[in-house]
């Protein structure tokens, strides 16, 4: 079981209304939000931040943002967020070849150099200690403007919060996210781990 039990989706009407956003991105309201709503100010602030970070403002597509989130979540080891981000990437139109080969983004032909620069930025920014350096900056500036870099770091930072929240909570992964995790990440050993609903 999770560290804290998720509440019913009916618990807080304002959170429920805002959480309709996730029906588009994931097809369900995540258990993480249902846990956050024990303090509705947190759930509402999180959903509004999520919506702002994931809004399309330029060339950083919805699919790329979700792949950035996956790389960040993979770097920190959060299985819950890995499954959610790969599912959302699929729902937002990531190419099948990219979904199937996300682990090999650095070398696989499905990814272009601009995408590789963004995903390497995500990897470096998600490490502790932080690994963003001059080389990462130079590569980013070859392909992206400063507003787009802000968008990317917004995604990375949002998932830094989510990775810590969900791995500490042991948030139970929803069935749909498990299916996506198994489909796209299973060949690399994806398991739900502590997120299977049992006590860890």
From TrEMBL:
SUPFAM superfamilies the UniProt entry points to: AhpD-like
GO molecular function, one term: peroxiredoxin activity
Keyword presence, Oxidoreductase: yes
InterPro entries hit by this protein: AhpD-like, CMD-like
Residue ranges constituting the Carboxymuconolactone decarboxylase-like domain according to the UniProt record: 40-120
Key words, A-Z: Oxidoreductase, Peroxidase
Family annotation (PANTHER family): CARBOXYMUCONOLACTONE DECARBOXYLASE-LIKE DOMAIN-CONTAINING PROTEIN, SI:CH211-175M2.5
Protein name: Uncharacterized peroxidase-related enzyme
Source organism of this protein record: Winogradskyella sediminis
Taxonomy of the source species: Bacteria, Pseudomonadati, Bacteroidota, Flavobacteriia, Flavobacteriales
């Amino acid at each position: 079981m999770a560290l804290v039990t998720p509440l019913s989706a009916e618990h807080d009407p304002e959170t429920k209304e805002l959480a309709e956003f996730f029906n588009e991105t994931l097809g369900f309201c995540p258990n993480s939000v249902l846990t956050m709503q024990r303090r509705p100010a947190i759930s509402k602030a999180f959903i509004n931040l999520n919506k702002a970070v994931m809004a399309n403002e330029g060339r950083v597509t919805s699919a790329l943002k979700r792949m950035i989130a996956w790389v960040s979540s993979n770097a920190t080891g959060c299985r819950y967020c890995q499954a959610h981000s790969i599912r959302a990437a699929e729902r937002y139109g990531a190419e099948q070849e990219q979904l199937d080969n996300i682990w090999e983004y650095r070398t696989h032909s499905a990814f272009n150099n601009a995408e590789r620069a963004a995903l390497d930025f995500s990897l470096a920014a998600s490490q502790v200690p932080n690994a963003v350096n001059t080389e990462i900056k130079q590569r980013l500036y070859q392909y992206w403007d400063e507003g787009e870099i802000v968008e990317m770091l917004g995604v990375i930072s949002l998932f830094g919060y989510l990775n810590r929240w969900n791995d500490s909570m042991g948030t139970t992964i929803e069935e749909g996210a498990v299916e996506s995790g198994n489909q796209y990440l299973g060949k690399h050993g994806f398991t739900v781990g502590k997120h299977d609903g049992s006590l860890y």
